[in-house]
């Protein structure tokens, strides 16, 4: 018998899901040196007062949590920032604009002894498109940290970005950052302007992510034509409920469901994965013959993956999900059952990769998950988890309206009967 888990392991352990990198890959190479310095002290007192106010609020927040060590660090940071301000105040000012952004990058950092994470990359670019400063952080920077980064960029620009100087304008793509930094930068005679789109920063970030990325980015479900955020949100909700129901504790490879979901007349055949404790999810076959082959074919899982394709839902860490879908999840607040239970929907290919499913696949999955959850709610509790034969029609809510889904749990022997019409 060929194991569903064995085939899916081949898929998930292959290259398409490998986005990790062992080291941090964007450094802040700053080699410039301050040359001539202006002696002007205009607005310096007011600027220091404003920065002191920002630091005071930060220090009070630290003290309220009772962390005396962090309080000392905050005071030291305030002194360092004050010194940096004085140095920047003396710099010559050039009539030019800079663009600055701090955003969640489309790349992964995978430390050897810590969970993987997507870094926040702070970029400061000159009007000529030169990288004045770049910095990688595990968490989004505070307004105070971003202000300090801008000051350091002015005092010591990265090698090749020109000498130390103050620009006349800085464009930021975050309105909250603009509100916080505008008064501070104004005291340096620098305008802080909100620009929702920074094309120059987009281009640099895109080149950086392409250069660093080891593999081609995964396509996202959001890119499937005519698939709406409402449908995807409902699928993520159903997938989270399915994972939390732990169907692999009740069903195994010998439990095949024939599920017919409108507008399709013929059923597809679903098998719950996870009883072996390796890969958890749902394998879906278009024909009963494909299910038979999984039990009767003498070939290996790798050979079987080359001979046929099927639709699959399995649960993995976030690295297995496309960046487009991860960003859509964050924007729309789609649920995830656990950090290691991000739902992955796809169709296997003969090349042992995972391709995007069709919209019809997702519509079927929406109805099938709803029907399986209803079946488990109504039957497994009554029979105390013992699997009973089932042949029922369930009314299932879908984004496009109510649907009547026919679900039948096949007897194992029936899978091999040629007269079984599905």
Index terms:
422 residues; alpha+beta; Nucleotidyltransferase, domain 5; 2 domains; 8-stranded antiparallel sheet; 5-stranded mixed sheet; 11 helices; 13 strands; 37% helix; 18% strand
How many helices? The count is: 11
Estimated radius of gyration:
28 Å
SS-based structural class?
alpha+beta
Strand content: 15-25%
Distance, first to last CA: 21 Å
Reading the helices and strands in chain order gives HHHEEEHEHEHHEEEHHEHEEHEE
Overall 3D form: elongated
Uncertain spans:
9-71
Assign a percent range to the helix content: 25-40%
Number of domains: 2
Strands side by side in the biggest sheet: 11-10-9-8-7-6-13-12
The number of distinct β-strands equals 13
Please describe the biggest sheet, giving its number of strands, its sense, and whether it closes into a barrel.
8 strands, antiparallel
Task: Quote the average pLDDT.
Answer: 80
Overall description:
The protein is α+β, with helices and mostly antiparallel strands. The protein folds into 2 domains: 4-16 and 217-416, no CATH class; 20-54 and 89-212, 2-Layer Sandwich (Nucleotidyltransferase, domain 5), CATH 3.30.420. The chain contains 11 helices and 13 strands. Helix 2 (44-64) runs antiparallel to helix 3 (68-89) and helix 7 (229-245) packs parallel to helix 11 (359-380).
SSE diagram, text form:
Layout: H1 4-12, H2 44-64, H3 68-89, E1 97-104, E2 120-125, E3 131-137, H4 143-155, E4 169-172, H5 175-186, E5 191-194, H6 199-212, H7 229-245, E6 256-260, E7 268-273, E8 281-285, H8 288-296, H9 301-307, E9 311-316, H10 323-332, E10 342-348, E11 354-355, H11 359-380, E12 390-396, E13 403-410
Parallel strand pairs: 1-4, 4-5
Antiparallel strand pairs: 1-2, 2-3, 6-7, 6-13, 7-8, 8-9, 9-10, 10-11, 12-13
Helix pairs in contact: 1-9, 2-3, 3-4, 4-5, 7-11
